[in-house]
UniProtKB/TrEMBL annotation:
Protein name listed in UniProt: Kinesin-like protein
Pfam families: Kinesin (PF00225)
GO MF annotations, alphabetized: ATP binding; ATP hydrolysis activity; microtubule binding; microtubule motor activity
GO terms under cellular component: kinesin complex; microtubule
Biological source species: Heliocybe sulcata
Protein's UniProt keywords contain ATP-binding: yes
Entry keywords, A to Z: ATP-binding, Hydrolase, Microtubule, Motor protein, Nucleotide-binding
Lineage: Eukaryota, Fungi, Dikarya, Basidiomycota, Agaricomycotina
Domain Kinesin motor: 61-432
């Protein structure tokens, strides 16, 4: 079935309307939302006012939302009035007055389901296809910005996340004119309205827990950046004028990773202290963006706009900053449209297209990572847009983050093809909710498996251990000082009980487990520890506050570290079993065609099929080569088999020979041998190389592998092999050097 042209859609509107009405008559009534907005507000208000209600499910890391807007007055008539007559290639007015016809139907609001009605042409004439897409939430044309704000920002507690040192990111995606800016501006103004009220409540709670008088504990810095093609500029500054092409002239801002691995373009960061100041800043920056939109070509729909609000907690000066990142993306269909434009515009559109595709890869990888509870490679270094979004894509980041993508579609049937593109871009980000699992067996290294009693016992041990460590360190300093004065301190009795300050039973009441703590933001954990350290509800003396803050930060870090490493172990086990499966699959296919093979081990001398001595390659090498060549491996073997059969030759010999040739090629391409190193040696090599350099090398290798369609897991291992080899060489030369020195 072919897609219908704009001409045929508009001239066939009566037919499509009747097909739509037949279709609608057969549909069940749309499903609405599972909660009312009043219920969302109620839960939120309670959470803010009630200290004990901090235990809540943080839900998914990536949420997908669809939105369609109402048709605007006379829009259909304006937008679709003159259409090209495809037969004659001339513009003709096909209808006197073009009335709106629905291209999107909301089938369910939560979980979201949109049905796009796509006009197409069958052998017997025009017809309609109905394509259904899933999301977490869907907003029909009657939903206003206030409700969108409540069901996204409020329901997911994004402001509290940011104020607790986490990262919230909202991405608006869709065709030009679909309503991205309308949504983002709506959200931005409401965020400006509420952020300081939420900050006041959270600030008061935190300050009270610390026994500090000043409740004004947050500092806010705002930046606004525009990315047009590869060029970034600061939207806080007005443009310096317009060039001959009618484009705004702006100072370019470089986007690079700094030495610490951060991507912080040099933008004007404006400090804001109230809703009014934030609102003013947003309005001015948006006005600067719109100034350019009134110029000859609306740059606003061709550029990405990124508003970032950074939040610093003055009482936790060393903690990571919270970030709220709001991104109004460039129109998604621009590349096709740009074909009629000059080279510069086409380059810019190609760049936008690339960045949107790369963004898709990153969001998809992130969603997958969250759903599978482990690490996957996220290629965020591939372009400037995803580099700017590093905080949400960097797997090393220790901050909790939540990403919300709002995919916008036009309501018109004439835009259905674009709508299908938009919905199929965003829909795959939706992940299944985590499967309800029975209680996992106890694992001392995985906090997610601990019961209430095990959690209490771990917390008691951790606090005690850390207080003892502090005591030990202080004793050492004091005893050294005493030794200088010729005195000797009484040795410490390590069995002597210590005051951990934090009452763990108070910190971990009822049926609370480590799972609850692991989901908690660090600031919330510290706040709870400070509360649990209070005796008779009296504020703690300053010296104790400092100790509790520092120890509880360490305990939270240790808990998070245990969760992360447990997740990595799960992930590695998944990867390993997948690798095995891939090998078994390859083997299965080979067995089907080659017949008589019985051994479970591939390509070894023991197998009856092989006359060649495969003993010269290890199983690991053979598996790696097959994984790398994937389907090519089978194709080559099948071709050898077919040829031998046709020519009446020895099939086993031909197949084995072909396999051997491939192994030789594989070796010649760089001796891709996966070596096994002891974990301690890898850890030593890592520490010696430097963690940042190590990770960069691995990441680069994986990106290169992604580009070359080579197994990225193999690339990772190969990169590690190279670095451990280097480390071995370095150590050997030091040894030799050391040995020659000592001679
Ligand atoms: N939900 C809505 N309700 C009412 N009007 C809307 C809604 N969404 C968008 N509009 C209107 O539709 C028009 C196009 O919306 P908007 O400018 O937000 O689109 P856009 O996707 O940001 O386009 P561009 O990519 O060109 O910037 C505007 O006039 C806007 O006011």
């Amino acid at each position: 079935m072919a897609a219908a042209s704009a001409t045929s859609i508009t001239s066939n509107l009566p037919l499509f309307r009747s097909l739509l009405s037949d279709w609608s008559a057969k549909q069940p009534p749309p499903k609405g939302f599972t909660t009312t907005t009043e219920e969302i507000s109620e839960v939120f208000d309670k959470r803010l006012s009630d200290k004990a209600s901090g235990l809540y499910e943080t839900g998914k890391d990536v949420l997908v939302t669809f939105r369609t807007r109402p048709p605007l007055e006379d829009e259909a008539a304006e937008k679709f009035k003159a259409v090209v007559d495809s037969e004659e290639g001339q513009e003709v007015q096909v209808q006197e007055k073009v009335e709106f016809c629905e291209g999107i139907t909301l089938a369910s609001a939560e979980p979201g389901v949109f049905v796009a009605h796509v006009p197409s042409v069958k052998w017997n004439g025009p017809t309609l296809q109905h394509k259904s897409f899933d999301s977490d939430l869907a907003f029909g044309p009657q939903i206003d910005n206030e409700e969108v704000y409540k069901r996204t920002v409020v329901a997911n507690d994004l402001l509290a996340l940011v104020l607790s040192g986490g990262i919230s990111c909202i991405l608006a995606y869709g065709q030009t004119g679909s309503g991205k800016t309308f949504t983002m501006e709506g959200l931005e103004h409401r965020i400006a309205r509420d952020l300081f009220a939420v900050a006041a409540v959270m600030g008061r709670r935190f300050a009270e827990a610390e026994g500090v008088e000043d409740h004004d504990i947050f500092e806010f810095g705002v930046t606004f950046l525009e990315l047009l093609g590869k060029h970034a500029s600061d939207l806080v500054e007005p443009p310096e004028g317009v060039d001959a092409r009618g484009e705004p002239i702006r100072k370019e801002v470089p986007i690079q990773e700094d030495k610490a691995g951060d991507v912080r373009p040099r933008l004007i960061s404006t400090s804001v202290r109230s809703s009014a100041e934030l609102e003013d800043l947003i309005n001015n920056s948006l006005a600067h963006r719109r100034t350019s939109a009134t110029a000859r070509n609306a740059t606003s729909s061709r550029s990405h706009a990124i508003l970032t609000i950074r939040v610093k907690n003055k009482l936790l000066p060393y903690a990571e900053e919270g970030q709220l990142i709001l991104v109004d993306l460039a129109g998604s269909e621009r590349y096709e449209d740009s074909k009629a434009h000059d080279k510069q515009r086409m380059d810019e559109s190609r760049e936008n297209n690339k960045s949107l595709m790369n963004l898709k890869d990153c969001v998809r990888a992130k969603a997958k990572m969250a759903a599978e509870e482990g690490f996957v490679h996220i290629p965020w270094r591939m372009n400037k847009l995803t580099m700017l979004l590093k905080p949400i894509f960097d797997i090393e980041a220790r901050q909790h983050s939540k990403t919300l993508i709002i995919a916008h579609v036009s309501p018109h049937i004439q835009d259905s093809v674009h709508s299908v593109n938009t919905l199929s871009y965003a829909s795959p980000f939706k992940t299944a909710p985590p499967k309800p699992r029975g209680p996992a067996p106890y694992d001392a290294k995985d906090p997610r498996t601990w019961s209430h009693a095990q959690t209490v016992s771990w917390l008691k041990d951790e606090f005690t251990k850390r207080v003892k460590l502090r005591r030990q360190a202080e004793w050492k300093v004091k005893s050294e000082r005493a030794a200088k004065e010729g005195k000797k301190l009484k040795p410490l009795d390590s069995d002597e009980p210590v005051d951990t300050h934090v009452d763990v039973d108070k910190l971990c009441p009822g049926d609370m487990t480590a799972k609850n703590f692991a989901k908690m933001y660090t600031t919330e954990f510290i706040e709870r520890c400070l509360q649990a350290a209070r005796k008779d509800e009296k504020p703690l003396p300053q010296s104790q506050t400092t100790v509790v803050k520092s120890i509880s930060t360490e305990v939270a870090g240790q808990m998070y570290y245990l969760v992360i490493t447990a997740k990595t172990r799960t992930r590695n086990a998944i990867m390993k079993s997948r690798k095995k499966l891939a090998v078994v699959d390859t083997y299965g296919e080979f067995k089907r065609t080659a017949g008589s093979r019985t051994s479970n081990v591939l390509w070894t001398g023991e197998a009856p099929l092989t006359k060649y001595n495969y003993g010269k390659y290890t199983d690991e090498e053979l598996n790696m080569a097959q994984l790398q060549y994937r389907s090519t491996w089978n194709q080559v073997l099948w071709a050898a088999e077919k040829k031998a059969k046709e020519e009446g030759g020895d099939v086993a010999e031909a197949v084995s020979k072909a396999a051997e040739e491939m192994m030789e090629k594989w070796k010649a391409e760089g001796g891709r041998v996966m070596l096994k190193f002891p974990e301690e040696e890898i850890a030593e090599a890592k520490a010696d190389t430097g963690y940042k350099k190590w990770d960069e090398h691995v990441e680069e290798a994986m990106v290169r592998a992604d580009n070359n369609k080579v197994d990225s897991q193999w690339a990772r291992e190969n990169a590690i092999r190279e670095m451990v080899d280097d480390y071995r060489k370095k150590k050997a030369s030091q040894r030799d050097g050391g040995a020659s020195n000592s001679v």
